[in-house]
Amino acid sequence: xxxxxxxxxxxxxxxxxxxxxxxxxxxxxxxxxxxxxxxxxxxxxxxxxxxxxxxxxxxxxxxxxxxxxxxxxxxxxxxxxxxxxxxxxxxxxxxxxxxxxxxxxxxxxxxxxxx
Amino acid sequence: xxxxxxxxxxxxxxxxxxxxxxxxxxxxxxxxxxxxxxxxxxxxxxxxxxxxxxxxxxxxxxxxxxxxxxxxxxxxxxxxxxxxxxxxxxxxxxxxxxxxxxxxxxxxxxxxxx
Lengths: 115, 114
Description:
Chain A is mostly beta strands. Chain A has strands at 4-7, 10-13, 18-25, 31-37, 44-50, 53-57, 64-70, 73-79, 87-94, 105-106, 110-114.
């Protein structure tokens, strides 16, 4: 148990559906992240939020829309996805101070399948 | 080196063997190097965060070293146990980049046979 929870754990959706992934951290961290893990590829950073402000968008298609209403919650809204978007989506959080700079605490991930 | 590279891609060892993996990364604009362990069906878990050239860190039977000038880090596991079986990821953070912006390697998958 890392203190970062994600729901749902598994999601199957059609290309015309709209769904949302949810992440919550109970660690008092100020930064939250979305990552994508595709088969045979490294973890890819998608979005970074610091104190609820988006500070990084790594050229992610607009069919992925993040939302960070407060520093404990992070959402990833999905619409008109493509089959190649099927992947494991991981959420993480970190603190900007302390001895372990930006050490990230990961959630268990959402396994997304787009049909 | 443009990306973070890890070798070997996978490794099979017997219980009790000691082993090590390599992480290579661009040395320019270096800020920090992270190591994570990712067990199947679990979340990646941080092992070490290192920033200084020559840094050495240890946690139990696992240790890591860092050379920022030549752009590499080694992870060592002494006396491997079956519970060490996992994928070990390294990630680099650039100086001046967005806070927490990590660039990950593909990982080294370790299997330890009893």
